[in-house]
Write a structure and sequence with these properties.
Two copies of one chain form a homodimer.
Chain A: E1 2-5, H1 10-21, E2 27-30, H2 43-48, E3 56-60, E4 68-72, H3 74-84, H4 95-109, H5 118-125, H6 132-156, H7 171-185, H8 194-203, H9 207-212
Parallel strand pairs in A: 1-2
Antiparallel strand pairs in A: 1-3, 3-4
GO molecular function (chains A, B): glutathione transferase activity; maleylacetoacetate isomerase activity
GO cellular component, one term (chains A, B): cytoplasm
Family (chains A, B): Belongs to the GST superfamily. Zeta family.
């Protein structure tokens, strides 16, 4: 498998964690989101993913004519990995628990991350001309609101364990750790979020998460 | 089942379509996002979903002690419905095709909708004090960028059919139709998106989609 990503991309980071948790080998292909006007916008990358977003995963799918398949959107990629390589499972067995894990993952992927990614911040400072201070306040506002909602959800749920759901990492933890990385990078105040901090710490004791960290990628700067 | 939602909420609209496509009966409970300071912020709704976001689906899950389960996040709810009530299937059989459907759904749920929802627009006009004109330009920019990316993806893929993937509606169509509704409401220019318009039209010929429309909800204004 080939993973096209960027060391600091939160969505690429999620997929790296999932690949590592499943013990799957992959080749890392760097797509620099800033250099060369954004390599994700190149024709060669668009041929893989017309959305021009990282990550993209190229895999050999026996069921597909020609074999090779290019997948996009981090959560769709992880669901694919879960279906193709069931061990280690990133979704629990019971339907209601699976829905809970997915809801936590989506609470990050739909409510926090989209508001704080590079192209949005660029629009705010460029087109709307907001100041650096306003940009940081925006970042912290959405990161704070979204993670506080997640903290409430985890605090209220008896299924919360060593990890977001139970005592083994799931899809939710694959999304949580990159978001906490971003939150810390932008100095969001996480002091009122003990569940998130504790789970993050438990994750960061595992090789699968350490190996996936931005600073441990070949394209890290 | 009880679906807590709001007639104009895009995420609630997705779940209504999925429930209808599967022929499932449900009771609709209105949560007004504007009146009473936002009913989703009430203690009684937060008890169902601490995230304070619609939709929430309450179902009887036999596998859960006590039976009742409250689910949140539209895509997690639809995946739950797909696993519990497999017919009519909203995901195809082949793994690569399932990933493709999910990627299209997420391209809307993660790249377009989060930037254009009510609380974000409020922050822009309130905290950042942007003008009505700038707000509309923001809306049209992200709607335009996201839907153009989706159009490219559909144009490039041989699996695109009468609907987003093949000739029966999938999870991708459950997300597309509410997004087109929003785009039309905010006068986004869709003239360069023939695939989206054609698929939208095919969807709107089906009862499941018509019945799920905002104007056909009991809480419509």
């Amino acid at each position: 498998m080939k993973l096209y990503g960027y060391f600091r991309s939160s969505a690429s980071y999620r997929v790296r964690i999932a690949l590592n948790l499943k013990g799957l080998d992959y080749e890392s292909v760097a797509v620099h989101l800033v250099k060369n006007g954004g390599e994700q916008l190149s024709d060669s990358f668009r041929a893989l993913n017309p959305e021009a977003l990282v990550p993209a995963l190229v895999d050999i799918a026996d069921e597909v004519d020609g074999g090779e398949v290019a997948l996009s959107q981090s959560l769709a990629i992880i669901e694919y990995l879960e279906e193709k390589y069931p061990e280690a499972a990133l979704l629990p067995a019971k339907l209601a628990d699976r829905a809970h894990v997915r809801a936590l993952a989506l609470a990050i992927a739909c409510e926090v991350h989209p508001l704080n990614n590079l192209r949005v911040l660029k629009y705010l400072t460029g087109t709307l001309g907001i100041t650096e201070e306003q940009k940081n306040a925006w970042y912290q506002h959405w990161c704070g609101t979204g993670l506080a909602a997640l903290e409430s959800k985890l605090a209220a749920d008896p299924r919360t364990g060593k990890f977001c759901v139970g005592d083994t990492p799931t899809l939710a933890d694959c999304c949580l750790v990159p978001q906490i990385y971003n939150a810390q990078r932008f100095k969001c105040d996480l002091s009122a979020m003990p569940h998130l901090l504790r789970i993050h710490q438990n994750c960061m004791e595992l090789d699968a998460f350490i190996k996936a960290s931005p600073e441990n990628q070949p394209d890290a700067e």
